[in-house]
Amino acid sequence: MPDRGRGFGETATSFQHHQVREVQASVAKTHFSQLLDEVERGATIVVLRHGRRVARIVPDPERRLRDHRAALGDLAKLGQQVRKRNGPVTAEDIVSSIHEGHKY
């Protein structure tokens, strides 16, 4: 269901876990840089001219794949550093540390 008031007076819908926004061409022209920032974060922008869809701006799948792989690599390195510093940690240890100091 469309959602009004998302920053530039456009509509927004959710499509397969991706944010899809419709923006008038005049608004897209004025706020192009901000729209590109949103696309970089995973949004899809549909550009309308006189209420008709004329273009779609989508994230680059190759860049997103590289970013995801880099993030997974960083997490793996962090895990190695934590294990090297603290030794092996069990799931029970993690849960226990989360609840440490809680009063039930």
Structure description:
- By secondary structure, this protein is α+β, with helices and mostly antiparallel strands.
- The protein has two domains: 11-57, YefM-like fold, CATH 3.40.1620; 61-99, no CATH class.
- Helices cover 48% and strands 23% of the residues.
- It has four helices and four strands; from the N terminus they run ββααββαα.
- It has helices spanning 25-30, 32-40, 61-86, 91-99; strands at 11-15, 18-24, 44-49, 52-57.
- The chain has a four-stranded mixed beta sheet with strand order 1-2-3-4.
- Strand 3 and strand 4 (52-57) form a beta hairpin.
- The radius of gyration is 21 Å and the shape is elongated.
- The two termini are 41 Å apart.
- Mean pLDDT is 84; it is low at 1-5.
Summarize the structure.
With 104 residues, the protein is of the alpha+beta class. Helices cover 48% and strands 23% of the residues. It folds into two domains: 11-57, YefM-like fold, CATH 3.40.1620; 61-99, no CATH class.
What key attributes describe this structure?
single chain, alpha+beta, YefM-like fold, four-stranded mixed beta sheet, 104 residues, 2 domains
